[in-house]
Amino acid sequence: MGNCVGSPGSSSVEVFVPRTTTERASLISHLKNFYGVSVKSLTNRVRISGSVDMISEAKNYIQRFLEYDHKILVSVSASCFSIFTFFDLVRHFEQRFGVFISPNPPSTLAVKGEPSKVDRFCTALSTLDSDCQQSSVTMAPVNYECIRQFCQKSSINFYRLPSSPSVHMALFRYCSKLFSVPKPSQPLSQPLPADAVFHRKPPAMMKSRVQEAKSVVSEKTESAKTDPKKLRLVVIDGSNVAYEYGNKQFNPEGIRLAVEFFKQRGHTNVVAVVPRFRQAKGGVLFDKLERDGHLYYSPSRLLNGIQLSSDDDKVILEVAARENGVVVSNDQFRNYLHIDRLRSVIENRLPFVMIRNSFFVTDDPHGRNGPSLSQCLQLP
């Protein structure tokens, strides 16, 4: 586990990485290319310099790397190996499969991680390698469009991909499987078995109490719901919610819970905003939220190995201000309180509570004497 030296807000920290660590050079290279930080190798440490957010991401990456104790070497064809000479593609496979990949020329990949995750990646790698070795075929424009969409979702420069037609076909087949939705292996409803046991009916008194309780819950639910046209746009601080749910680790499930909370209240205009460079962490969950119109990305791109990202906090506040929406976040947004058009949005934001697998906003988000949650969410 890495031991960090330096204050949390500093722009330079040192992390313990023994010089004897295998794949140490690859680790340093990954840090530079994945997070846009500068890295200096010391005796048994590495010094990382850069923005606070990127340093935090880099430190977490090092800690995960040092925890990996299972490693295998995999030989692949030259065509397949060319895929892993592009850091954007390496980053995609690492994030999707939860492994560390170190390309060792001319045609070997060192793969580290939990045994089950390494095996899962190697299975996908075997298919990818086999597809790369098949004879070249002419690809239709729609196939290239599939690859282009994959690159866009994974922050990969489409125009820098290997030029080999066989590699293009292998990537297309990989993308097709990645975006396909598996069909259920059996019908969603099955007939009850002949020996099924049925519970006896509850007594009349119990039944009436159950119905009474359901009635109360139904009334509360209906009172919370309003005509969607009269409800304000809800803008969720995706990173804030995801880190809160994951206990300081980015977990996209928190964003899904937040969206569902407001949908159950009758909202149709609910959006979460996260930086583009975190897109791969959301996987198929982010893909679904994006398709449903509940997830948007603030601009982010890699330029010469440096991560350039717009401030997602500013994007969130600007969207809410322009659309007369309300922000859901536990962030104080102190950096923007001096901007008049954003001050009201910040002061009227809705703090949330995350307990285990539950997300909710209290009925009195601004205190006992303030407006209720329903009032905060309704258009004036």
UniProtKB/TrEMBL annotation:
GO molecular function terms noted in the UniProt entry: mRNA binding; RNA endonuclease activity
Ranges where the RNase NYN domain occurs: 231-374
InterPro entries noted in UniProt: RNase_Zc3h12_NYN, ZC3H12/N4BP1_RNase_Reg
Any single Gene Ontology cellular-component annotation: nucleus
Pfam families: RNase_Zc3h12a
Listed name of the protein: RNase NYN domain-containing protein
